[in-house]
Amino acid sequence: MTIGPPAAAFYLRNRARLFLEIPLVADSLDERLVPRNQMRAGDSAIADRVDLPMLIDSILTFLPDTRNFTVVPGASELERFWQAQVKRELASYMDRTHFGWTNDLSLAQIKARVANAPIFGPFKAGLGHGVVGGPYGQCLLQTRFSLTAASTYWISALAGP
Q: pLDDT tens across 54-78, in order?
């Protein structure tokens, strides 16, 4: 079982050499990142969809006068993917809001830009670590589903044919 897109990519990149016929159970990734073209019979994915417009709508519900958003992506391939998704999916907000990007700034510059600003995010794990809110969906339910799927697979794999 892989957790997150980088782990799924590692697994798929090394499948033939390290994992032979072990099926992939890819967990904790957005459905837009499920590597469908590389999946085989027996592989599965436990995926969700980050609703980017819902994230902005939740911010505007609590802070309706917000006009400026600072998006803090990194520079990895995965983060460039998300930057493109954000720009595409939030295009309808551009006439009434401004999105600033920090991926070309140093950590000190990012800290200065977002100092004292409320931080919202799409993942519940950020709560209590600087994030004050966001639309979190069914994170606990997905975790339970993932654990059930993994344990069912491993119990049947250990039992053998």
A: 889 988 998 899 999 888 888 888 8
Structure token pair of residue 142: 């997905």
Provide CB contacts within 8 A for 113, sequence distance 6+: 70, 100, 102, 105
pLDDT reported for residue 139: 53
DSSP string, the chain: -EESHHHHHHHHHHIIIIITTPPPEEEEEEGGG--GGG--TT-EEEEE---HHHHHHHHHHH-TT--EEEE---SSHHHHHHHHHHHHHTGGGTTT-EEEE-TTS-HHHHHHHHTT--EE-S-GGGBTTTEEE---TTHHHHHHHHHHHHHHHHHHHHH--
pLDDT value at residue 90: 93
CA distances from 70 to 32, 130, 158 (A): 23, 15, 48
Using 50 as the pLDDT threshold, list the residues of the chain that sit under it. Answer: none
Q: What are the domain boundaries of the chain? A: 2-49+139-159, 52-133
